[in-house]
Design goal:
Blueprint: H1 11-16, E1 23-26, E2 29-32, E3 37-42, E4 45-51, E5 56-59, E6 62-69, E7 72-78, E8 86-92, E9 100-103, E10 116-117, E11 124-125, E12 127-131, E13 136-141, E14 148-153, E15 157-163, E16 165-166, E17 169-170, E18 178-187, H2 194-205, E19 217-220, H3 222-225, H4 231-242, E20 253-256, H5 287-296, E21 300-305, H6 339-355, E22 359-362, H7 365-370, H8 395-410, E23 415-418, H9 423-426, E24 432-434, H10 444-458, E25 467-469, E26 473-475, H11 481-494, E27 498-502, H12 509-522, E28 530-531, E29 542-545, E30 548-551
Parallel strand pairs: 19-20, 19-27, 20-21, 21-22, 22-23, 23-24, 24-25, 26-27
Antiparallel strand pairs: 1-2, 3-4, 3-8, 4-5, 5-6, 6-7, 7-18, 8-15, 9-10, 9-12, 11-14, 12-13, 13-18, 14-15, 16-17, 28-29, 29-30
Helix pairs in contact: 6-8, 10-11, 11-12
C-alpha cells in the first residue's frame, strides 16, 4: 500500500495507536494495508508469492489478490492446478514486547482463554486483540469466511493464516476464484475500555447476526440425567420448573438432551434413515405427545441431536474415512459433501416440525468432521491425508453449507443452538451458540473452568454473533448450592441465556425461590455483563452486572 494511504498522525497519536503503520483510513473505517509478504502452501511445503502490481501476488498458477469490500479488505485466491493447503499473509511491524494479546477459539472454548504476553507461536483463531496498557488494536476476519483463519502476533510482525484444506488434504479449487476472507481492523477509542472495544469489534465482524426475538432461558436435563432421561422424567421436571415461571409473555424452553433418540439400526427390518434422529426410543415412544405435554405445562419444547451420526450399518460410501478420533465403529459419521446425507438432515427437521418442537440443539459437528476437539487443534486442525467426497471445497465452505442446510431446514419456527460448532461459521446463522465446553452437575472445578472462564472471555460475542450460551447450571446434590447460586446469578444477570439442569431431589424451597427470581431476570433483556478484572484474572471475580459491582468467590 502506497504511503499516501497511511493515516496522517502526529507523533503523539501514532504512539497511541497500535499497528498504525499497517492500517490506513478509508472513510469512517480503518483498513489493513496489503501485506509485505504472501506465502502459499501445497501439502506441507510453503512457497513465497511475488507482487505483480495492483495488490496481486503470484507464484506460478497461484494468485492472491485483494479488494476493498466496504469496511473490510477482501482476500481472493486462485489456484487452478496447485492443490492448495493454505495462504499466509505477513505484515512487518515492531510491537512492544510488553503488549498483551487475546484471541478466540476455533469452536468452543476450553477454560483456557486469557490475556497473555506476546508469543509469536500462539494461534489466535479468527481474531486477536492487542493491548499496550492504554489502547487496544483489533484484527479479525468477518464471520462466515471460506477458510479457517488464525492470527499470530510477534515482536516484528503480524501474520494471518487462511487454511484452505479440504479435510486432511489440500483443496482442488480448479478454475474458480475463492473469496477466502474479509479482513477487518479497529482501534479502541478514548471513551471505551478494552471490554467495550472487544464487544464493538465483534459487531464489526458480524454484519447480520440472527438473534432470538426475546431473551432465551429454560431447562435442560443433561447435567442431572446424563442420558438417563425418559418421557416421565421430562414431564416431571418440566412441571416442577414451570411453576417457577412468572413471565408468560416469554415462555422458557424445556430442552430434551441426549437419550431420547433411537439411533441403533441393528434391528429386524431396518433400512430407513429414520432409525436415527427422527425416531424416539422406547423411553419416549411419542415425541409429538411429548412436545404437546411440555406446551401444556407452560414451556416450549426443544431437543438435542447429533446430525452427522450415521447408522451402525451405514454404507461406507456415505461416511467419512476413519481417522484417529473418528474410528469408533459405534459412531460412523456421514460425509456432509454427499447430497444424500444433506437430504437426510433436512428430513430430520421436517419431522421436528411435525412434532411441534421449537428449538433444536445440534452437537458434535466439529468433532465429527475433524476427528478432534478444538482444544486439540493447536498443531493441526485434523489428521493429514484424508479427503471428503467433494475435494473441490474447503473445509470451511463445507461446514458453511452444512450449517446453512440446518438453518434453512429449521425455518423461522425453530431456534437453533450450535454446540461444538465453529464459532465464526455459526454467527449469522444460529440464534444461539454454546460458547464453551461442558460445565457439570458433578464437578465444581469444571463449572469454574468451562463456565466462568468461557463467559468472561466470550461474552463480548453475545448479541454480536449470536446469543452466547455459557451452558447450564447443574443443580444437583453433588455441587453445593452456595457455589451453584453464584454461577446461576452470573448467567441470569449477564444478559446471556440461562439454562438450568435441576435434579428434583436437589431442588428444595431455597433453590426454587432463587430460580424463580433468576427466571424473571432472564426473561427480560439485561445489560451486557462485564468482567472487571479479566485482563489479570482468567476466572474474573469482579463483575459489573446491571450497573453495580458484584464480587464472586469461585473458590468456595
Amino acid at each position: 500500500m502506497q504511503r499516501r494511504h497511511f493515516v496522517k498522525l502526529s507523533a503523539t497519536a501514532t504512539a497511541a495507536l497500535l499497528f498504525s503503520r499497517i492500517t490506513y483510513a478509508s472513510g469512517n473505517a480503518a483498513l489493513i494495508n496489503h501485506p509485505d509478504e504472501v506465502w502459499g502452501q501445497s501439502d506441507a511445503d510453503w512457497f513465497q508469492l511475488k507482487p505483480s502490481g495492483n495488490g496481486t501476488f503470484v507464484n506460478k498458477d497461484v494468485e492472491v489478490s485483494f479488494k476493498t469490500n466496504g469496511n473490510a479488505n477482501g482476500v481472493y485466491v486462485q489456484s487452478p492446478k496447485t492443490v492448495l493447503s493454505g495462504i499466509k499473509l505477513k505484515w512487518k511491524h515492531q510491537t512492544a514486547t510488553a503488549a498483551k494479546t487475546m484471541g478466540d477459539h476455533f469452536e468452543r472454548s476450553y477454560g483456557d482463554l486469557a490475556w497473555r504476553g506476546m508469543d509469536s507461536n500462539n494461534k489466535n483463531p479468527w481474531y486477536v486483540l492487542v493491548n499496550d496498557g492504554k489502547n487496544t488494536a483489533c484484527f479479525g476476519v468477518k464471520t462466515g469466511p471460506s477458510t479457517i483463519c488464525w492470527w499470530n502476533v510477534g515482536p516484528a510482525n503480524l501474520e494471518l493464516t487462511l487454511d484452505t484444506h479440504s479435510g486432511g488434504a489440500g483443496v482442488h479449487l480448479g478454475n474458480r476464484k475463492l473469496h477466502a476472507a474479509d479482513i477487518v481492523t479497529m482501534h479502541s477509542t478514548a471513551a471505551e475500555n478494552t471490554y467495550a472495544a472487544a464487544h464493538r469489534f465483534c459487531k464489526l465482524m458480524c454484519d447480520k447476526p440472527r438473534l432470538p426475538k426475546q431473551p432465551v432461558y429454560g431447562i435442560n436435563d443433561w447435567y442431572f440425567a446424563y442420558g438417563e432421561n425418559s418421557y416421565e422424567l421430562i414431564k416431571k421436571t418440566t412441571a416442577m420448573m414451570a411453576e417457577l415461571v412468572t413471565d408468560t409473555n416469554n415462555r422458557p424452553f424445556s430442552v430434551i438432551d441426549a437419550g431420547w433418540a433411537e439411533y441403533s439400526p441393528l434391528l429386524p427390518g431396518d433400512g430407513g434413515w429414520n432409525e436415527t434422529y427422527a425416531k424416539p426410543n422406547d423411553k419416549f415412544k411419542d415425541m409429538h405427545a411429548m412436545g404437546n405435554e411440555i406446551k401444556k405445562l407452560g414451556m416450549r419444547p426443544g431437543l438435542w441431536i447429533r446430525p452427522l451420526c450415521a447408522r451402525h450399518d451405514e454404507k461406507e460410501s456415505l461416511t467419512l474415512p476413519k481417522i484417529p478420533g473418528r474410528d469408533d465403529p459405534k459412531a460412523p459419521i456421514l460425509d456432509p459433501t454427499i447430497p444424500e446425507n444433506i437430504e437426510r438432515i433436512k428430513a430430520y427437521f421436517d419431522v421436528y416440525k411435525q412434532w411441534g418442537f421449537e428449538m433444536v440443539k445440534h452437537d458434535y459437528t466439529t468433532y465429527d468432521i475433524f476427528g478432534r476437539w478444538g482444544i486439540k487443534m493447536k498443531d493441526a486442525l485434523t489428521t493429514p491425508n484424508w479427503s471428503f467426497y467433494d475435494k473441490t471445497k474447503t473445509t470451511a465452505e463445507i461446514i458453511n453449507h452444512l450449517y446453512r442446510t440446518i438453518r434453512n431446514a429449521a425455518g423461522d419456527g425453530i431456534y437453533i443452538i450450535g454446540c461444538n460448532t465453529m464459532s465464526h461459521l455459526s454467527a449469522g446463522l444460529f440464534e444461539l451458540n454454546r460458547i464453551g465446553d461442558d460445565t457439570s452437575g458433578r464437578e465444581w472445578p469444571r463449572v469454574k473452568k468451562m463456565g466462568v472462564n468461557t463467559m468472561s472471555f466470550r461474552l463480548p460475542q453475545h448479541n454480536a454473533f449470536y446469543a452466547a450460551d455459557g451452558d447450564c447450571v447443574g443443580v444437583t446434590k453433588d455441587i453445593s448450592w452456595e457455589r451453584n447460586k453464584q454461577w446461576m446469578q452470573l448467567l441470569a444477570e449477564s444478559g446471556a441465556p440461562l439454562f438450568i439442569s435441576a435434579q428434583p431431589e436437589a431442588t428444595g424451597e431455597a433453590q426454587k425461590k432463587y430460580i424463580k427470581e433468576c427466571f424473571a431476570m432472564a426473561a427480560k433483556p439485561q445489560p451486557l455483563g462485564e468482567p472487571l478484572d479479566w485482563m489479570t484474572n482468567p476466572f474474573p471475580s469482579k463483575w459489573k452486572l446491571n450497573g453495580r459491582e458484584v464480587d464472586f468467590n469461585w473458590d468456595l
